[in-house]
């Protein structure tokens, strides 16, 4: 007996019995929106920490010339810890991501990432920021993921249900 020819079913637009599992469509965030969220985080969180590092811990810009790496460390470590805390407590959102209606999710489970993934993502963010060649990765991919997203198996998406802001009414 001859095999059933599947191309006839396709040509006549009949359904064939295949076990194709359809992947869910993920609303990946664009590079421009992610950049806006990151710049918001930089100005809201990192700049005050840099000012504290320069003017309170060190004696101003003259002292920073001799201790530049130390001043950056005093600012970047708390910045990454604050980002991690925001992402863990607020379901993958930082203040900048919340302002742009973005959210970080686990790429495989499409759920909130684990604490280890968030910590690993934020510390590998340093690696991908300070090496400019890695900035080009999102321009060649449809999902717009960067190096730290690949390493931690996360992705940034548009939040379909952004959290409602609490409105306080004056009595």
TrEMBL record:
The keyword Cell membrane applies. Residues 7-21 have a biased composition (Basic and acidic residues). The keyword Protein biosynthesis does not apply. Keywords: Cell membrane, Membrane, Transmembrane, Transmembrane helix. It is found in: Cell membrane. Signal peptide: none annotated. GO terms for cellular component: plasma membrane. The chain crosses the membrane at residues 37-57, 69-88, 118-137. Residues 37-152 form the RDD domain. Pfam families: RDD. It comes from the Bacteria. This is Integral membrane protein. It comes from uncultured Sulfurovum sp.
């Amino acid at each position: 007996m001859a095999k059933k020819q599947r191309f006839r079913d396709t040509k006549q637009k009949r359904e064939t019995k295949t076990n194709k599992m359809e992947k869910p469509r993920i609303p990946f965030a664009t590079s421009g929106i992610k950049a806006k969220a990151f710049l918001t985080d930089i100005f809201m969180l990192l700049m005050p920490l840099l000012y504290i590092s320069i003017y309170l811990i060190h004696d101003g810009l003259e002292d920073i010339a001799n201790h530049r790496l130390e001043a950056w460390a005093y600012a970047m470590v708390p910045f990454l810890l604050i980002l991690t805390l925001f992402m863990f407590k607020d379901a993958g959102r930082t203040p900048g991501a919340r302002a742009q209606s973005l959210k970080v999710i686990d790429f495989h489970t499409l759920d909130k990432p684990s604490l280890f993934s968030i910590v690993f993502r934020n510390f590998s963010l340093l690696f991908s920021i300070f090496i400019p060649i890695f900035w080009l990765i999102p321009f060649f991919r449809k999902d717009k993921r960067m190096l730290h997203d690949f390493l931690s198996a996360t992705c940034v998406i548009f939040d379909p249900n952004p959290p409602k802001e609490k409105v306080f009414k004056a009595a």
